[in-house]
Amino acid sequence: MGDLSGKTAIITGAASGIGYAGVEVFVEAGANVVAGDIQDEKGRALETRFGSDRVRYVHCDVTKTADLQKLFDTAQDAFGGLDILWNNAGHGGTPTGVEELDEDGFDQTVSLLLKSVFVGTKLAVPMMKEKGGSIINTSSISAVCAGYAPVTYSVCKKGVAHFSKLAAAELSKYKIRVNAILPGFIATSIFGSSLGLSREQADQMAALVEQQGGRMQPAGRTGVGKDIAEMAAYLASEKAGFITGGEFLVDGGMTVGPRHSWDQTDGGPLLDALGISVEQAEEMRLAMQAEQDKS
Questions:
Q1: Do 26 and 77 sit in the same domain of this protein?
Q2: Which of 70, 75, 196, 259 has the fewest beta carbons under 10 Å from its own?
Q3: Per the domain annotation, does 69 fall within a domain?
Q4: Taking the CA of residue 191 as centre, how many other CA atoms within 13 Å lie in the half-sphere pointing to its CB?
Q5: What confidence tens digit (pLDDT) does each residue in 219-259 have?
Q6: What 3-state DSSP class applies to 87?
Q7: Residue 249: phi, psi to the nearest 5?
Q8: Of these residues, 20, 153, 174, 234, which one is catalytic?
């Protein structure tokens, strides 16, 4: 994790999940943080926990430019400027696919997951252009593979990743670095929220996901918010001064390949097609070896 002493950061979606871990990690690294979210009770508790001299909570619906502007105004008024922006707020968006597309849900999802990243970045530039800065955008492994999230969410996250590269090129003249993080299966309330659960129920589901999700990836455990936050803190720091325009998978190896490439108990597509278990395949191999030994 990099040193962020004396830096000021804005983090959206900061009252829970990855963003909450981001506040914890950034403060530990020395930064002052403006935390934006719509969960006011949790946000105020966050400010109380760390003290208003280190963390300021601002109610912020990132689909509203006026709310986003309040984050930047607070960074200037409370801490004297801005060095880091982490565009992180989001949820699962509309679950509808191509055939049943909910156009209103599509527009809302794009506004939340993609447009807000554009607008946030636009608002950051005037505060960073004289001395440089770091912008980090939360994308997803659904940006690179099918099957991990609904289509609208996935397309938005692909847009976030590509936007980060294009913005890195455009803003390099100001020494503003822009990078995207692509989280994998992280235990947060986003899964429960996507199923329509209450916030309390979604938080409970996140705890269950953390306990049970390790079987899904080579790392052998479920990712947690801190895994993503520590990558963000590194990208925000001077240690990452030569890194811009990057897309960084933090997924416990989930995208290295199909399950049989890393799980020896999984027979893979050929055995599945033949209806043969791993144990049966091993028995057949041993039987064939025995026949060869006889001859």
A1: yes
A2: 196
A3: yes
A4: 15
A5: 878 889 999 999 999 999 999 999 999 999 998 888 888 87
A6: strand
A7: -75, 125
A8: 153
Q: How far is CA 171 from the centre of its chain?
A: 22
Question: Which of residues 186 and 294 earns the better pLDDT score?
Answer: 186
Q: Which of 89, 235, 115 is nearest to 176 (CA)?
A: 235
Answer for the pair 163, 201: CB distance below 8 angstroms, yes or no: no
Q: What letter represents residue 89's amino acid?
A: A
The reply to whether 199 falls in a domain is yes
DSSP annotation of 186: B
- CA distances (Å), origin 221, targets 186, 205, 266: 10, 16, 18
**176 DSSP assignment:** E
Pair of tokens at residue 39: 């969960």
Cα separation, 154 vs 145, whole angstroms? 9
What are the structure tokens assigned to 281, written together? 């395949």
Helices (H), the chain: 17-28, 40-50, 65-79, 103-110, 116-128, 151-171, 190-194, 199-212, 225-236, 268-274, 278-294
pLDDT tens digits, one per residue of 25-51 = 999 999 999 999 999 999 999 999 999
Nearest C-alpha neighbor of 21 from the set 151, 210, 239: 210
Total-model pTM: 0.87
Give dist(CA 9, CA 283) in Å, integer.
59
- Domain range for 282 is 258-295
Taking each helix axis from N to C end, the angle separating 116-128 and 65-79, rounded to the nearest 10 degrees, works out to 30
The total number of structural domains in the chain stands at: 2
Answer yes or no: 148 catalytic: no
**Whether 135 and 38 share a structural domain:** yes
Phi/psi zone of residue 67: left (φ > 0), alpha (ψ -120 to 50 degrees), beta? Answer: alpha
